[in-house]
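1st attempt posting a full record on here, be nice pls
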Amino acid sequence: MERFDFNFPPYEYLAGNERATLQSAVDIAFFEDEAVIIEASQPVDYLYVVIKGLVREMNSEGEVVGLYHAKDTFEARALVEGHTPHRFIVQEEALVYTLPKATITELMEANPRFGAYFYASLADKLSNMAHNKDTQQFENLFTAKVRDAYRDNAVWLNGSDSIILAAQTMKQHKTKSILVRHEGRVGLFTESAFRDIVIAGASTEEPIYKWSPFELISIDIEDYVFNALLRMTQFKIQRVVVTENGQPIGALEQIDVLAYFSNHTHLVAQRLDRAQNVDELIDIADQMTQSIQILHSSGVRAPQLAQLMQVLNTSLFEKAWRLIAPAEVYDRSCLIVMGSEGRGEQILKTDQDNALIMHEDVDTLAAEKACDEFSRTLARLGYPPCNGKIMVNNPFWRKPISEFKETIRQWCYAPDGDSLMNLAIFVDAKAVAGDESLLKEAKELLHRSMTNDAGTLGRFASAIELFDHQNTGFFAQLLHRDSSSHMDIKKMGVFPVVHGVRALSLEAHLSETNTFDRIARLSQAGVLDENLSKDLSEALTYLLDIRLKAGLLAQAVCSLEDNHNQVDMQSLTTLERDLLKEALSVVKRFKGMIRSHFHLGNF
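the predicted structure (as tokens):
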């Protein structure tokens, strides 16, 4: 008997004696093309693991709802329930392991982690994935270089400079240490020196070299961060001097190391606050992308990353607009971002989605000039122009408040396809600069107009079905050798959840824009069932995770196409495919709830 492969989940969770139990019970079976391995509603006595070939799962309507490749397992839940409503048919000659029901049941009872893989909720499975990423985070600690965590903001003084000058310099530069040049040597003056200075009653006019150690603990910029931490621990110090080619260039603080692994973005925020021109912003925007890669590789999930990026993007856009717009335009208008940026669910840089709402007295020519420059600047920062021209340089999205409100009325009372799309984008709007009362006034009109009209709300909600024709039979399409293995994860999963929740939130008069916040509020209000709301949040989290993974991969290979939503099914692991299937089933259940709630059969 060929030895069973235990090097993938959940079999890797089995201990030595448990592996022996499974190995002694496993058998191998061969099935020809179109052979039925499991018939719907028939007793299921085995768990199957694909060795070679391809197996398709069919629902009662004859739709392909799943595909199983090498190392994929099916049909675990049927072992407990006794049968499955679906059929499992061989697409290509299949060689499979057959694992007896009694053996699998025994192992599930003996090993909760093994059993949880099959029967845990989507939330529990995702929690298990996060646990596995913890190991990766520690691995990053061993591979990260000092250069990655070091902030190039060294401050130098001469040894003859006074203590009071050092204090003033540290306050000005917001630093806790200063490098000191004195008689051909380099020392380090730190904030801890002030304790000794006060105790000694020293004059603030004394030279700082008297209070600066010159026997420095240093580390090369190309050395590992882990080694820097070891030295700080070994010598009970809070910082080490960073050298390059043997010469001191600055200091690496403990807080820098902690920030690097816990929240790399604080460095970006500091630079944004100090930026004086657009050229500086371009460099910062690049650093933001690097922050995403670092945090993602450290196990930070997509929703948390999106929230961090919303804060940074808001600061970036505000800073750019402040640098570009004349004061009278900045103060008498409201710059807003919309769509995923407004919801705080955008991580990687995508098309610009913004608008400008102005007071009636704003100089429209000055505003037009500033908006044109702003759109060009965002493109330089890595945010490409929107294909639909939903940008401030488009007069349609740059209007006085009175005209903007009239446009909203037209969207609500004559809702054609374009109007519904514009409504969906604007519902998620968030102010980033200027007079926020303008956006508040526009949204109040939107809520009054929409929530009192069931017909308009229903037409608005019906957009969840926009891409149904693309979703139908997706797994069946994968069976054709000449078809693409890429799934548009936005159209198949993310958009239906985001828009369905958006419609429910609009009906419930909610002010939140973030989808996760909306789900929580809808659950609290009893609009969403508690279990569905939990599953929905976890499903959306996972969909955003794999979309981010696909986007980072596209960036890594320098793809010129917008592939951020295109997930290569064949690049996913067994566990990832399993979770994707479950997430999409949650999306399908939610869409059914939306159809029923808004009576979409009437539209």
